[in-house]
Write a structure and sequence with these properties.
Blueprint lengths: L5 H7 L1 H11 L3 H17 L12 E2 L2 E6 L2 E2 L4 E6 L9 E5 L5 E4 L7 E2 L1 E8 L2 E3 L4 E3 L16 E4 L6 E7 L4
Parallel strand pairs: 2-12
Antiparallel strand pairs: 1-7, 2-3, 4-5, 4-8, 5-6, 8-11, 9-10
Helix pairs in contact: 1-2
Amino acid sequence: MNAPNHVGAFLLNPLSTLSVYMHRIDSKPLYCSLLMLASVAVCFSGCGPKYPNEKAVYKVQGTVTVDGAPVAGIQIGFNPVSEEKRPTTAQGTTDAEGKMIISTYAEGDGAPEGDYLVTFSWQEYNIMARSYSGPDKLKKYSDPKTTPFKISIGNGKPNDMGKVELTTKK
């Protein structure tokens, strides 16, 4: 005697197969429970942290000038002072007014709590490579070991670098 392949039918079309069996037995409460469970699973599947080990971030303010004028496209690096194995880093750029846009998880969201050595570099953006390349016009500010700029980020702190004045002169 050939028995129908219930497992195969369920795998191919689970809702159709379940509805066939639900009609065979009088189980409206069970059917409603399954429907509610599926709805809850769909609703909560997108909840929770967007990134693993996500840390709280704080907006960072500041304006960067080079030789007295604001410049767009200055690359900014927040290099953690701590010796964490896997530090969460923040980076950013400047807009046309020289305002800092610092990002960790999303554009302009800020930086995680901590102490940072702040680096600045100014290179040409290569549209084909989608990266910055060429000589760095701000070389003396681009090394975390030699940068004079520091900031401490956190809740209740100003998180403001003020006006950062850089120079291309040696």
